Amino acid sequence: MILFLMIGIVFLGIVIYISAWMRSIKKENERLFGKYSFR
Hints:
mainly alpha
């Protein structure tokens, strides 16, 4: 039971970390490629 709880916490942390990382990548791309305007 404790093991499942630990796995859940680790998984949640990884998901939060990846979402924050993707958001920062998106900001970097907008800053770098803003003048080209892909949208």
